[in-house]
Design brief:
alpha+beta; two-stranded antiparallel ribbon; 3 helices; 2 strands; 51% helix
Length: 70
């Protein structure tokens, strides 16, 4: 089942705009640490957005009855 990455607007349904921008910018600059045990790589933002996009697509498929489960 094809799916796309979640948009920043989608991500802002669960996170503040400032947080989304912070993580995006940190990833675009090569990555770094958010805190003592959470790191961000250059791929982290895109991977997270695709994961959210996949989850959204799965929910859409179940709610639209095109699939019985996800």
């Amino acid at each position: 089942i094809p799916f796309g990455a979640a948009s920043e607007t989608d991500l802002e349904l669960c996170h503040t705009r400032e947080h989304v921008e912070f993580i995006r910018d940190l990833a675009q600059s090569g990555g770094g640490s958010i805190d003592g045990d959470t790191g961000v790589t250059s791929a982290s933002f895109d991977v997270a957005a695709r994961g959210v996009g996949a989850a959204m697509k799965a929910v859409d498929c179940v709610l639209s009855s095109t699939h019985q489960n996800a």
